[in-house]
């Protein structure tokens, strides 16, 4: 009976992230449009876009290899698995011990590795520029992310997200300087990883500023739909991660009652709304950076994360 | 057990002179490599069964060769057995690869005799149980590999590589000789006697430093790495794979044997020294790799990175052991050894792939390759597995060992020593940087050489390589996946080694649900490669079938879109140097003093614009160039002695006699 329940709640989690991901993107777009005093696309537009793309033919470049056709599925699989490993409404789900935070980052790393390869497969200049810049950004963002994880994990004594969330929700944490720094670092990394302003612009096709879009330029139809869905899942993953580590209140445990799980889910939706709103406000209030300013931006995250790791001894429990 | 091992080594040695004869026969290389395959497989199976079933037996043997009063001592304990598995797995794979690849050798007479001798040398180092046999075998291994490096001696570059290699190898042997000299001062050359002796702390520290220099110069630790990216690529590709994948591991063995086994309990500052060398080696090695255009040189630099990761793990093990936390030391040590094994697998695989590319296109320069995935689909698939595995991405094996190393780093707050507590997370940062650069580096390697459009006619007319080469690559690729999804089996197999070297073991893994690995406790961290693999595979396939059934599965081909400006010229694609340009610009200006200068013709002039990139190896400039200069100046002065008159020579002889007499008298 409990096994069934465990599998069920894990299944609910997997479907939940898949269904919510386009909604979050739609929400952020809507808020951004409203802030610019535009009406903006409807909230459900991303779903319609995905369905439209999936029904279309794939137009494949003459030179594209089998790898190019497989990569969207690989990316989607890696990102989906990673996103369903981050606790959303409940902790300690069935497969939470399958992969810890480091493994989740590495799974996203796999997805990015393949995406960068896809950019180079057709042999166009744009694909190359996108891949080359993506790996440059990743070479700073990934270490910053890992060191942030170190600092959080050293405070919580675990890299297992369910335990980290439980620890962060308890009173043992207190207010720590390290955690503040880790939060800023994680936010910067999340902006870079999700190709948001100021690192990349998700809404542009201006060739010299784009990174993510340049890599996926040759994709169409269902392949493009899967890649879009993967990026939406990734955004949801990072927002859930920030919510799980820094706003851990109200998350249910796996063995809680259904009502408690429902409450957890409601609170989770509330956190998504708040963080999505903040993201939209942030994006509308600053400009995109030049490509070679990004290393400084991400270097700041790296340094903050390193400081957070070192300072955890200094501010035991302020 | 040990008798089988020694007979197999003897068989390899016997194959060496046979190689001279066989090199002139048409099917000679097949017989020779087949013989090597049998011998190494026997050794591998012997060592593996010893490690798995009789880890607590340490059979030893003494042969009446070598120093008359000493003889040659051999011993097969858990550590030797593990490294024998690594050496012979790599050796067997290389021999299988060479069954196909070796047939294209232009000068078989320069390769065939030395190849089995080289394998025998590496095996003997691992089996030796006295300092004399160890050093002789070590030097034998160096010399035979040198002969293989200069086997294509008509290229000036290879001769220079061989020269630098020979110098560095002599340096390494010299430091090891000194280390053993210090150790033997109270005990003699036999390892058993050295283990029983109690050297003073200062002496032990000195031996540790000398061992780090000696083993590090062979393994390629920065700044002693200068020879490695020259020598490894110069050899034939199966030998490159052995040098990078296996011989560097024999060097790691030498370090582990001396520092963890022969020396007494470590002191905490040893770990700082090892970490200070290992961490920067990892990051710098892969940054160098990113700047390369030559596939084999890129792989050689990436070996330096992986050696850095291994030494960081060993440094962590020393730190935790010195501070009495031997259960964490076991974790760090196991992580390091697992990386030894993993790196041997994927580095051999990658070198074989590079060899296959070199064989069919004749090119090592990535900027002349491209699009090989269409013409060498099987090689391209195996290479893809190798690239993903070495970039430490799940579900492959490279990730597991790096993950374990990270778990050990995360336990550093438990150390009582404040210095160690504060610096170890910084090494975690260096490893994280190295991992991210490695992924960038292998996107570059794979993307430039295997994807895109061919950049030269040779790349456009490439074809698939032979069956033996493919078999070797696919066997290694399969092992990379197995070690990635079932790491528990491999961790448990390493338990006796860890027990013998650091005195503790990681928790038993194989009994856990779903083959999860749990380094310390489930509440701290756990990873399940099997489930990650199954989950990803299932969700990817589910997505594919759902979309194909419910939405659309139609597909048509069209010219590339490229924002409306496709250019048929393949030179429009990104090249290796342009791919790494952003990283070169961000990190290279300090580390390589990289400098770009553009030369733009005036408007309307048909002259081409030029971009010149100037990069310098600062370590070479700061360390090697001055030494070379001093030696040059001194030899120039000493050279005067060659052109003296007979009177002056007689005066010199007389003066020397007087000095000697004075020395004796005082």
Topology of helices and strands:
The complex is a heterodimer of chains A (318) and B (666).
Chain A: H1 2-35, H2 45-55, E1 58-61, H3 66-85, E2 90-91, H4 101-121, H5 125-156, H6 161-169, H7 177-193, H8 212-215, H9 221-246, E3 252-253, H10 258-285, H11 294-311
Helix pairs in contact in A: 1-3, 1-9, 1-10, 2-9, 3-4, 3-9, 4-5, 5-7, 5-11, 7-9, 7-11, 9-10
Chain B: H1 2-22, H2 28-53, E1 60-63, E2 72-75, H3 78-101, H4 114-127, H5 131-149, H6 156-184, H7 191-196, H8 201-219, H9 228-234, H10 237-262, H11 268-290, H12 295-322, H13 326-361, H14 372-375, H15 377-390, H16 397-409, H17 418-449, H18 457-460, H19 467-485, H20 487-493, H21 495-502, H22 529-550, E3 555-558, H23 576-579, H24 581-591, E4 595-599, E5 610-614, H25 618-639, H26 646-665
Antiparallel strand pairs in B: 1-2, 4-5
Helix pairs in contact in B: 1-2, 1-4, 2-3, 3-4, 3-10, 3-13, 3-19, 4-5, 4-10, 5-6, 6-8, 6-9, 8-10, 9-10, 9-12, 10-12, 10-13, 11-12, 11-17, 12-13, 12-16, 12-17, 13-15, 13-16, 13-19, 13-21, 15-17, 15-19, 16-19
């Amino acid at each position: 009976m409990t096994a069934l329940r465990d599998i069920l709640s894990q299944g609910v989690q997997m479907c939940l992230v898949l269904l919510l991901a386009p909604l979050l993107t739609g929400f952020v777009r809507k808020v951004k449009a409203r802030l610019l005093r535009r009406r903006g696309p409807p909230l459900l537009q991303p779903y319609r876009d995905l369905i439209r793309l999936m029904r279309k033919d794939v137009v494949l470049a003459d030179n594209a290899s089998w790898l190019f056709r497989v990569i969207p599925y690989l990316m989607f699989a890696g990102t989906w698995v990673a996103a369903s490993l981050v606790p959303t409404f409940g902790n300690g789900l069935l497969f939470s011990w399958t992969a810890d935070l480091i493994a989740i980052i590495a799974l996203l790393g796999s997805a990015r590795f393949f995406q960068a390869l896809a950019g180079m497969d057709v042999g166009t200049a744009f694909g190359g520029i996108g891949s080359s810049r993506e790996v440059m950004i990743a070479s700073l963002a990934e270490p910053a992310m890992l060191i942030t994880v170190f600092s959080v994990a050293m405070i919580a004594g675990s890299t297992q997200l369910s335990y980290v969330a439980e620890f962060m929700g308890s009173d043992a944490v207190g207010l720590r300087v390290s955690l503040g720094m880790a939060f800023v670092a994680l936010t910067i990394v999340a902006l870079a990883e999700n190709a948001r302003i100021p690192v990349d612009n998700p809404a542009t096709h201006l060739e010299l500023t784009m990174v993510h879009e340049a890599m996926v330029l040759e994709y169409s139809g269902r392949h493009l739909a899967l890649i879009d869905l993967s990026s939406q899942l990734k955004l949801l993953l990072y927002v859930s991660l920030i919510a799980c580590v820094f706003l851990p209140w109200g998350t249910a445990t796996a063995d809680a009652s259904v009502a408690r799980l429902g409450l957890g889910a409601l609170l989770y939706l509330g956190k998504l709304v708040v963080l999505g709103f903040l993201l939209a406000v942030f994006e509308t209030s600053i400009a995109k950076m030049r490509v070679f300013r990004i290393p400084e931006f991400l270097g700041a995250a790296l340094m903050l994360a390193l400081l957070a790791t070192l300072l955890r001894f200094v501010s035991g429990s302020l | 057990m040990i008798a089988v091992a020694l007979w197999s080594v003897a068989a390899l040695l016997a194959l060496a002179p046979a190689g001279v004869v066989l090199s002139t026969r048409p099917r000679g290389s097949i017989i020779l490599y087949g013989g090597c395959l049998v011998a190494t497989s026997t050794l591998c199976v012997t060592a593996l069964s010893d490690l798995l079933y009789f880890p607590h037996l340490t059979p030893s043997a003494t042969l009446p060769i070598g120093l008359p009063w000493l003889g040659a001592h051999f011993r097969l304990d858990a550590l030797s057995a593990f490294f024998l598995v690594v050496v012979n797995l790599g050796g067997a794979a290389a021999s299988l690869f060479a069954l196909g690849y070796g047939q294209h050798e232009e000068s078989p007479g320069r390769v065939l005799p030395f190849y089995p001798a080289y394998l025998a040398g590496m095996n003997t180092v691992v089996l030796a149980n006295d300092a004399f046999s160890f050093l002789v075998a070590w030097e034998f291994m160096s010399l035979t590999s040198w002969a293989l490096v200069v086997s294509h001696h008509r290229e000036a570059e290879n001769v220079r590589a061989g020269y630098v290699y020979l110098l560095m190898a002599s340096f390494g042997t010299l430091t090891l000789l000194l280390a053993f000299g210090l150790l033997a001062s109270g005990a003699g050359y036999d390892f058993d006697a050295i283990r029983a002796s109690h050297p003073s702390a200062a002496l032990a520290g000195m031996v540790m430093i000398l061992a780090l220099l000696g083993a590090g110069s062979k393994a390629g630790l920065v700044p002693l790495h200068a020879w490695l990216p020259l020598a490894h690529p110069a050899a034939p590709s199966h030998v490159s794979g052995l040098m990078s994948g296996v011989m560097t591991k024999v060097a790691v063995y030498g370090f582990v044997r001396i520092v963890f086994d022969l020396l007494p309990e470590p002191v905490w500052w040893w770990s700082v020294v090892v970490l200070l060398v290992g961490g920067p080696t990892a990051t710098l090695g892969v940054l160098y790799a990113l700047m390369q255009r030559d596939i084999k040189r890129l792989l050689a630099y990436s070996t330096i990175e992986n050696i850095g990761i291994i030494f960081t793990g060993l440094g962590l093990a020393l730190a935790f052991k010195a501070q009495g936390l031997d259960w964490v030391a076991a974790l760090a040590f196991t992580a390091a050894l697992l990386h030894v094994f993993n790196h041997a697998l994927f580095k051999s695989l990658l070198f074989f792939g590079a060899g296959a590319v070199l064989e069919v296109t004749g090119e090592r320069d990535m900027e002349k390759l491209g699009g090989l995935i269409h013409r060498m689909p099987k090689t391209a698939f195996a290479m893809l597995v190798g690239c993903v595995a070495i970039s430490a991405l799940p579900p492959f094996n490279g990730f597991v060992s790096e993950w374990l190393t990270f778990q050990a780093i995360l336990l550093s707050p438990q150390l009582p020593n404040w210095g160690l507590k504060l610096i170890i997370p910084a090494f975690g940062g260096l490893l994280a940087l190295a991992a991210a650069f490695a992924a960038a580096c292998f996107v570059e390697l794979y993307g430039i050489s295997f994807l895109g459009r061919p950049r030269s006619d040779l790349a456009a007319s490439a074809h698939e390589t032979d069956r033996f080469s493919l078999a070797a690559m696919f066997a290694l690729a399969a092992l990379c996946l197995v070690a990635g999804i079932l790491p528990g089996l491999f961790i448990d197999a390493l338990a006796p080694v860890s027990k013998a070297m650091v005195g503790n073991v990681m928790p038993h893994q194989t009994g856990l649900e779903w083959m999860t690995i749990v380094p310390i406790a489930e509440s701290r961290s756990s990873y399940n490669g099997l489930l990650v693999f199954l989950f990803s595979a299932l969700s990817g396939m589910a997505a594919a079938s759902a979309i194909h059934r419910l939405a659309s599965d139609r597909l048509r081909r069209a010219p590339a879109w490229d924002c409306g400006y496709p250019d048929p010229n393949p030179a429009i694609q990104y090249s290796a140097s342009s791919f790494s340009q952003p990283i070169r610009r961000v990190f290279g200006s300090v580390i390589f003093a990289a400098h770009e200068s553009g030369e733009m013709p005036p408007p309307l002039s048909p002259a081409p614009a030029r971009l010149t990139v100037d990069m310098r190896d600062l370590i070479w400039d700061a360390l090697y160039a001055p030494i070379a200069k001093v030696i040059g100046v001194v030899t120039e002065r000493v050279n005067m002695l060659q052109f003296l008159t007979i009177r002056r020579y007689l005066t010199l002889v007389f003066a020397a006699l007087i000095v000697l007499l004075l020395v004796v008298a005082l």
